[in-house]
């Protein structure tokens, strides 16, 4: 069962790499359509980084991950996580914040301030957010 799980995980890393090759090609095409400025250079650099992370993920998936090597799993997992952190920080979070009408901290602040007040019906001692 462990070998099947390792091969399935390696196949998913290969899918992740292929998805990021596609993203790298999209960024490259976007850079080709922009004027020759510093922004074009940064887009080309981003495309290169995406392709390098994708190639490394696929290479690690076929070598240590396929054989169920623990160190290979951790190296690939950390590398894939580092590769996706900028996407989360600079694409997903700003997109989510524009979709929400109020600031994200308002729910957490309200929940932390008012969670200890008793409810009027007294069935529950404390309010749970």
Walkthrough of the structure:
With 129 residues, the chain is an all-alpha fold. The chain has one domain. The protein contains 4 helices and no strands. Helix 1 packs antiparallel against helix 2 and helix 2 packs antiparallel against helix 3. The longest helix is centred in the first third of the chain and has 31 residues. It is elongated and about 50 Å long. The mean pLDDT is 80.
Proportion in β-strands: under 5%
> Based on DSSP secondary structure assignment, what is the total number of beta strands?
0
Major sheet description = none
CA-CA gap between termini:
41 Å
Which stretches of 5+ consecutive residues score pLDDT under 50?
none
The Cα radius of gyration reads 22 Å
Could you say which structural class the secondary elements and strand pairing correspond to?
mainly alpha
List the total number of helices.
4
User: In percent, how helical is the residue content?
Assistant: over 70%
Query: Can you write the helix and strand succession as a string?
Result: HHHH
Mean of pLDDT: 80
Q: Specify the overall morphology.
A: elongated
Domains (count):
1
Keywords:
129 residues, 4 helices, single chain, mainly alpha
List the helices and strands and how they pair.
Elements: H1 2-32, H2 38-65, H3 70-99, H4 104-114
Helix pairs in contact: 1-2, 2-3
